[in-house]
Amino acid sequence: MPQVNRLARTTCPYCGVGCGVTATLESGQLIAVEGDREHPANYGRLCVKGTALHETLGAQGRLLMPRVDGQEVSWEQALTVTAERLQAQRTAHGPQTVAAYLSGQLLTEDYYVANKLFKGFLGTPHLDTNSRLCMASAVAGYKRAFGADAVPCSYEDLEEAELVVLVGSNLAWNHPVLYQRLKIAKERNPLMRVVVIDPRVTDTCEMADLYLGIRPGSDAYLFNGLLAWMDDHNRLDAVYLERHTEGLDDALGAAKQSAGSVEAVAHECDVDPERLETFYYWFASQLHVVTLYSQGVNQSSSGTDKCNAIINCHLAGGKIGLPGAGPFSITGQPNAMGGREVGGLANQLAAHMDYHTPGARELVSRFWTTQHLTPVLPDAPGYKAVELFDAIERGEISALWVMATNPAVSMPDGEKVRRALAKCPLVIVSECVANTDLLPFADIVLPASGWSEKDGTVTNSERRISRQRGLLPAPGEAKHDWWILCEVAKRLGWGEAFDYTQPWEIFDEHARLSGYENSGDTQRLFDISGLAGLGQSAYDALAPIQWPVTQQAPRGTARLFEDGRFATPNGRAKLLPITPRPPAQALSDDYPLRLNTGRIRDQWHTMTRTARAPRLMNHRAEPFIELHPEDAARAGLTDQGLARLTAAAGEYRGRVRVSHAQRRGEVFVPMHWTDCFTKQGRSGALIQGYTDPLSGQPEAKQGAVAVSKLLAAWQATLLLANGLDAPSSPWCRSDYWARIPMASCTRWQLADSQPVADWLAQVAAWCGVPASLWCDDPATGRLRAAGVVNGRLCWWLMVGPPDELPGLAWLEARFNDATLETRHRRRLLAGCDDGAVDTGPVVCSCHQVGQASIVKAIHAGDTSVEALGARLACGTQCGSCLPELKAILEEERPHARAKQTANTEVA
């Protein structure tokens, strides 16, 4: 008999919002997820990616066995070889030739053990994390201003603010649950204003009372100008500045030199002066202001300065340490902050200690009892991410262990990174997915557990620690990352220091270290010693809680710096003099367009998880190049055509999206596509390796590219039954291809510059199954064909541009038919049944509602978001599609009214 349904609480593995999830398990299977109504990060809300989590599980496509030199081996052999080869490199070349590259996808317990092993026992400082690519500038900015990497705000502050400023953050797509919280708060408080500052008109702008479409990279001018304006109009908080800060005069001097007037700032930022001054007046006039900033600020060669320019304005106005006030950096990954807590960055030690803090190195060494080791704990920071791969290419690093990330895709100057990986004598990869761009470079592959299997903690953007609970057994021989690290450490001779048997033991040590000698003059802000000694049962039951958690604050701390005392030696926050700098990647005649990269609504990082849920592929199915109509026309491009971007570092190919949301002279591409899903669709190949000199964060938002048409003699859509699909298939030699997983088959979009003389022979050679049905039009070059074996559909082909495709739902369902019915076989080449309705491109991924259905409902009289939701359910779950629904409504309402008027007149 099947087991009774069991509910379990865990945490979403996607963005830094850190939503609580309630999972339903039946007979050992996770069958459904929904938002945890009691979790304070989301109160039951989930975005479309979160609601599809249970669709991404299963053993298919997972790494199931360890591999050494391409051969599957036992865990005993894999662990022994890993330890022996690491030790051989360390002995032959020294500890500083060993390195690790980690991920915000790891749990805090995994991170802690990795940092302890590499820095504390292997003796190398070269351990960094992919959080370097997204949050390092925010970390450096906070440390310079506050003395600690301490986000001062809570999500509740978004709801208590009178003004919320969104800078470089497409909240609606990248943190949709927070977007919904803010949207509801704004509806409840008519006095609340929202300002969006972003070069692109994104879906987040739908909520904006004021939009500033600034020139990319000009943020420091904008906020320097705000600081100068506040001083000129007597809007500085003199009392707060006197009691709690230092550095105002230098900061003001630099601000007035670079941004001394509204007109000067408007020119540098390329915005309307009146709109700019409106923003300045709103900010200066309100005490309860939250500035929410993300990758648009951080991913810059001067990202730290931009963060401090924002923080300067909050300190100068006393807009911090209050409900609804503060500079709020929102993280990109589920545990980017947890990794920072345990020393996951190359310039950190552990528990928010670093190499430059007097006595910190000795303190950590005492706690880990590593004083007797040779070599001892490193005495200087290691290589940051971009520096690390440069060092590998130079031959300085001879052993690299990569865990839960894909630098072959995500790093800037991607071709250079791949050359470095190919040269590295020893590459170890811990990974849960069987097919990534990184694995071909690996000498040792170790299968790791994934979400729903891993057990530990994560820390979200508001410093809230939550449990990510293990609900299912890991498939095959996959093991937890902390266990793998401990087993290697034991084989290196350090078994006593890594004798953990459960995650709670690691968390307990982490909590004790945070409180170790943490008092008096050496007091550190990060302190969770109040969570030490929990034991297994209390750890299992741990409720979400914000650090610091101490004896004085046993229930956690929602807001920092309420008393105006900071974590600097003198307790004062520092205002920094900021001199704006242009992007390091300069535009030129060869590369005249400014490139912006970023996430899209329904995908996550390199798609290893989200592509396992086919409905998440429907909103944006292919890599794309979004640009202004004038730039498209100048390059001879049309909407939905194919184009290529070229840069000094590489090339990118994608489908054109013409949009007035783009500024002239600028272009946007998504960051998600990899060699597993497309040909030359990696955004990192376009970005040069320029970094912020303080944070080491790459400049991923201000590239320099040229655009041109991708010439194609033909385009085609090929649907393949599961089992015929393979990444090494012959059609992957086409000039353009995109692989799009569907529930019952795989869709390939193809294009090439070389004509095909005989399409029926070509597709038969590709698929190994000849055409059973076909029709063609030689005059136009159009063809449709299908391969059927024993009554079962194996493949379906349309030669022609994809805008001629029928809705694919009916066709996809035919791949499930054990034997095609006669009526279905007759309609196979048409691609749809008699009377079938094409619902159009998917707008609402939660309920799979297409644009054509929405337009039809609007014309039928549903001329509000609420009416559309009542009829079609679109926009009623996660709300991510609401801005798109409103845009469609705005476009279609006049047509609907005209139609209704005409009908009335006829009546």
From TrEMBL:
<dbReference type="InterPro" id="IPR007419">
    <property type="entry name" value="BFD-like_2Fe2S-bd_dom"/>
</dbReference>
<dbReference type="Pfam" id="PF00384">
    <property type="entry name" value="Molybdopterin"/>
</dbReference>
<dbReference type="InterPro" id="IPR050123">
    <property type="entry name" value="Prok_molybdopt-oxidoreductase"/>
</dbReference>
<keyword id="KW-0408">Iron</keyword>
<dbReference type="Pfam" id="PF01568">
    <property type="entry name" value="Molydop_binding"/>
</dbReference>
<dbReference type="InterPro" id="IPR009010">
    <property type="entry name" value="Asp_de-COase-like_dom_sf"/>
</dbReference>
<dbReference type="Pfam" id="PF04324">
    <property type="entry name" value="Fer2_BFD"/>
</dbReference>
<dbReference type="InterPro" id="IPR006963">
    <property type="entry name" value="Mopterin_OxRdtase_4Fe-4S_dom"/>
</dbReference>
<keyword id="KW-0500">Molybdenum</keyword>
<keyword id="KW-0004">4Fe-4S</keyword>
<keyword id="KW-0411">Iron-sulfur</keyword>
<keyword id="KW-0534">Nitrate assimilation</keyword>
<dbReference type="InterPro" id="IPR006657">
    <property type="entry name" value="MoPterin_dinucl-bd_dom"/>
</dbReference>
<dbReference type="Pfam" id="PF04879">
    <property type="entry name" value="Molybdop_Fe4S4"/>
</dbReference>
<feature type="domain" description="4Fe-4S Mo/W bis-MGD-type">
    <location>
        <begin position="5"/>
        <end position="61"/>
    </location>
</feature>
<keyword id="KW-0560">Oxidoreductase</keyword>
<protein>
    <submittedName>
        <fullName>Nitrate reductase</fullName>
    </submittedName>
</protein>
<dbReference type="InterPro" id="IPR041854">
    <property type="entry name" value="BFD-like_2Fe2S-bd_dom_sf"/>
</dbReference>
<keyword id="KW-0479">Metal-binding</keyword>
<comment type="similarity">
    <text>Belongs to the prokaryotic molybdopterin-containing oxidoreductase family. NasA/NapA/NarB subfamily.</text>
</comment>
<dbReference type="InterPro" id="IPR006656">
    <property type="entry name" value="Mopterin_OxRdtase"/>
</dbReference>
<dbReference type="InterPro" id="IPR041957">
    <property type="entry name" value="CT_Nitrate-R-NapA-like"/>
</dbReference>
